[in-house]
Amino acid sequence: MAMDMECVPNIKRDAPNILITGTPGVGKSTLCAQLAEKTGMRWLEISKIAKENNCLEEYDEEYKCPILDEDKLLDGLEEIMCQGGNIVDYHSCEFFPERWFDVVFVLRADNTTLYDRLRGRGYEGKKLEDNIDCEIFQVILDEAKNSYKADIVHEITSVTEVQLQENLERIVLWIQDWFRNNEC
Ligand code: DAT
User: Residue 47: CB within 6 Å of ligand 1?
Assistant: First the structure.
């Protein structure tokens, strides 16, 4: 079972694991899709994987979203995360094992941009307000800083196409550095 195969933290992976996190709508999927295409790394869309593997429990009526069965999801991902070469895309980050990630990028967007993007996605009422508040109060950035070593957490803005390309270049350079520093 995957649970018995927990990575030993000191054993090096063949390729890095990257976490891309941030409030819904900040541009995680857009970035991850292009990053995966550029690098050949595996894009793990956690929301999609959770749905496909029955890792969603009852529906939260207040927040209008299903509740994640975190233990089941983490057990199922353990083996693939030990291999490395993953880009994990999710709007929360504290429940992942710290040892899984070599670097964490927290995407940010300004309120007006985020509002328009979420409205365009059909968010309204409390769900819309909560997500905007989440970004204003930098909840995910604080969560990342509280969950991972400060020197691996990077805040990046993704509002314009130019920023998207700059972010891609920055992460690709980071990946190249990782391979340079982790040569066998
Ligand atoms: P997330 O995966 O964080 O929920 P997304 O990647 O689906 O966000 O992006 C939400 C919308 O914003 C989508 O219509 C694409 C657009 N978008 C994302 N990043 C952008 C950028 N840097 N420049 C312009 N539009 C962007």
Answer: no
pLDDT at site 63: 67
Compute, in angstroms, the gap from residue 30 CA to the centroid of ligand 1. Answer: 5
How, if at all, do strands 65-68 and 56-60 pair?
antiparallel
Q: What is the pLDDT of residues 120-130, one digit of tens each?
A: 999 999 999 99
State which amino acid sits at residue 28. K
Range of the domain at 44: 17-175
Q: Looking at the whole model, is its pTM more than 0.70?
A: yes
Ligand 1 atom 5 nearest Cα: 27
Is residue 61 one of the residues assigned to a domain?
Answer: yes
Residue with tokens 């769900």: 127
Residues 6+ apart with CB under 8 A from 26: 107, 108, 109, 114, 135, 158
Averages of pLDDT over each 10 residues, the chain, 184 residues? 54 91 98 98 97 87 80 96 97 97 98 98 94 97 98 97 98 97 81
Q: Percentage of the chain with pLDDT > 70?
A: 92
CATH number at residue 148: 3.40.50.300
What total of structural domains would you count in the chain? 1
The Å distance, Cα 180 to ligand 1 centre, comes to 31
